[in-house]
Amino acid sequence: MRIMTSNIWGDYFGNPVNVREDLLYGIFKKYSPDILGMQEYTSGWYKGNLYTWLSGEYYPVGTELYNNINYVPMAIKKEYKLLNYGYEYLENTPDISKGITWAVLEKDGKVFAVCNTHFWWRIGEEHEVIRAENALQLTNLMKHLHNRYNCPVFAFGDMNALLSSKVFEVYQANGIDHLHDLAQVKDDVSTHHGDPVLGEDGRYHGKKTQNDKHYSYDHIVALGEGIKVSQYRVIEDIEALDATDHSPVYVDVEF
User: Fold this and answer.
1) Is 239 helix (H, G, I), strand (E, B) or coil?
2) Starting from the edge strand earliest in sequence, which strands make up the sheet with 99-107, in order?
3) Cα gap 49→52, rounded to integer Å
4) What is the pLDDT of residues 149-164, one digit of tens each?
5) pTM as predicted
């Protein structure tokens, strides 16, 4: 099973969706995740074509919530049965775009849960405390789903957290594994490569980062036994670099 997370660079900065959505769609088609979690899915993205283009293979989870202001929806391949799903705002976080969309899925008799999230973003010790609270809320949800459904739980998204942050202290204290640590094949590059620049051709152009994994903001973690990870990859295709400031990340897992 392939799980992917992608911060798609919301159009907050005069960076229109229509000149970038085809690039991300191409990436999603090429790498064909079974579970796709996206962040910064703004109203501009809802008005765009991405979910329509994905609709042949995927169904949406979370797009109908709160009058389309769920900024962290998912797309799930149609062969996975949806058993339950929901959404939570991140508490004590002054940003409506920060939340968790979760789903419980089944395929071939195997049940598992997934959580797509986007944590608070500002820099400073007081903001690090908010992110740690975000991580604890996510952890509690993961534990609830794990216990209720007796299944592994995968969580992913833009956590705005370096590996040295308090977020990962919370995970470690609660038995949550970073899947990069379990992967047989892995990329050690940062998931954040900076904002693409608008060119004279009307398209955006990005470039690869020189930073390593310790500067990543996007992460995939899991709670549960018997999880095997064959790959943990950071996508640096030019289409991804041009479309968004965060490289999509995917894992191939068995459980």
Assistant:
1) helix
2) 81-89, 99-107, 110-118, 153-158, 218-223, 177-178
3) 5
4) 999 999 999 999 999 9
5) 0.97
Class of domain 2-254: alpha beta
Instruction: Please name the residue that has the structure tokens 């993205």.
Output: 45
Instruction: Write the single-letter amino acid at 155.
Output: A
pLDDT value at residue 130: 97
Which tokens go with 6?
């992608």
pLDDT tens digits, one per residue of 30-68: 999 999 999 999 999 999 999 999 999 999 999 986 455
What stretches of 174-213 show up as alpha helix (H) in DSSP?
Answer: 179-182
66: left (phi over 0), alpha (psi -120 to 50) or beta: left
How many CA atoms, within 13 angstroms, populate the side-chain half-sphere of residue 235?
Answer: 30
| pLDDT band for position 77 (cuts 50, 70, 90) | very high
Q: What are phi and psi of 249, to 5 degrees?
A: -125, 140
Q: Would strands 228-234 and 99-107 be described as parallel, antiparallel, or unpaired? A: unpaired
Per residue in 123-162, is it b (16+ CB within 10 Å) or e — as a string? eeeeebebbbbbbbbbbebbeebbeebebbbbbbbbbbbb
Euclidean distance between CA atoms 68 and 75, whole angstroms: 15
Parse the chain into domains and list their residue ranges: 2-254
Name the nearest CA neighbour of 7 among 252, 213, 251, 245.
Answer: 245
Q: How far apart are CA 94 and CA 83, in angstroms?
A: 31
